[in-house]
User: What shape does this take?
Amino acid sequence: MRGKLLALAGLALFVAAHLLGTGCTQPPTLNAIAPGQGYPRQLLAVDGTTLFASVVWDVGLPTETEIYNGLFGTAYFQIPDTAAPGVHPVALRNSNGTSASQNVTVLAPSGAFPAPRIEDIGVFGISGTAPVNVLLTVAAANLDTDATVAVNGTTVTSVRWGALPIDYLLTHTPATYGYPIYHYTQMLSVVDSVALGSTLTVVVTNHDGLADTATYMLPGAVASLDSDGDGLLDSWETGGYVAPSGDTVNLPAMGTDKWRKDVLVEVDWIAAATPNATIWGTIDTVFQFAPVLNPNGSRGVNLILDRGQGGALTGGGDTLADHTTMDFGPSTAAGYTDFFTYKTNNFDNDRLNVFHYAIFGRARPNGSSGRGEVYGNDFMITFVNFAVWAQAVAQVGTFVHEFGHNLGLTHGDVNNTPAQWNETRKPNFPTTMSYRYQFPGVSIDCDFTSEAIHTFSQGAFARINETNVNENIGICDNAPLDMNGDGAITVGQMDASADGDNTDVHDDFDQWGNLLLDFDAPGSRWNNN
Ligand SMILES: [Zn+2]
Assistant: This one.
């Protein structure tokens, strides 16, 4: 398997020779470092000639240190653990010399650096039959670029692979968060001689010794591999999905990639609920910029929306017959149409195992703004009668909310108190799944005022115990916040989530790291319809 790594290194050499072919005697150039400031250990991105180059921290000073990591050069680096607050000159260096420097401002540490948290495990290559050798990708929040990876108790050869710098903490106080996230990093690990169908125990350990553990089940056969864990087998993503009818759904023509999470949704609507034309790009962005690292090192979830825009995507965009109300299942109410009647008539059954189906309708019988199967494949958006229907941001939010239910997410989500899954207004849960934020978008700056961003939570906020709430310190940055909406900033027992009791313990939850994408797996509400 080390041959694979060598092959990758060979590729890097090829790229290097190609890129540097005309100027291979030049020292590197450094264009930018982003963000240009950070806390100790925070990951920064380097824009410049990073291939085979090192980052030179404190270049020209007595504290000068060379930092190298990653198979393809130091496109990312972490601020040294011991870096003093203040301005530090940073340059790139290769065998031909050193670039001009740029300044990085180091902020004073705020609280302890957290343990890593595994977000996703995937496959970037598999060879052999019994046993197999696997190139495993492990993505984690707050993972060091020099973290070690152990599989089934043995430390394996690993290199830094994907990386995602995060800058939101720079304007906040990390110590006031429950799990401040400085960055996401991904390792590529060489795992030799493991059995198909076996479950791997994966441990990542940062250089301070803090670790996290997760398991990963290998497929029973190489042919049933789903490298990126999106519920679409590699063979479907590269060669098309053959439906039970014998017809092929041409997934690659729709843009699937076996090493990037793809989610497919077909959307139809009634004329009265024709979506604002601007929402599609916004919805795409929500997923494209998600803090998710794929086996190929790329960022985000690739949402493939068929709204009848053409090319390989001509199934959606049907204008459906009008109704007064719509829901899942039959009803004899006047003007009512069953969602599944529409689906039978307008959705190609060959897509049943690979596409979600969504309808923008008029209203549900109970008047709610929409409904999505929690861990399933069907959802509806039904708030034409709401004043906020006119706002594109509310249409985006309700689509993302109901689709989020399909991806296994709930209003309060997994909690140390399981009954809270349907808590709809937790103060420390910045997600479009919350009723606080479904229409306007979430707030990420320590109050309840929306910044009009739709997304799911990353699980960063601290616990709130309703038996002893301090509104003076709020949910972050010690910013006072009237959580129970009584018009006063107080300390004591209170109903912070507006659910009628004052004894809950509320935890934030990492939704992006816990999406359930394989909607027809056992345990889902797929129901074969
Ligand atoms: Zn909901």
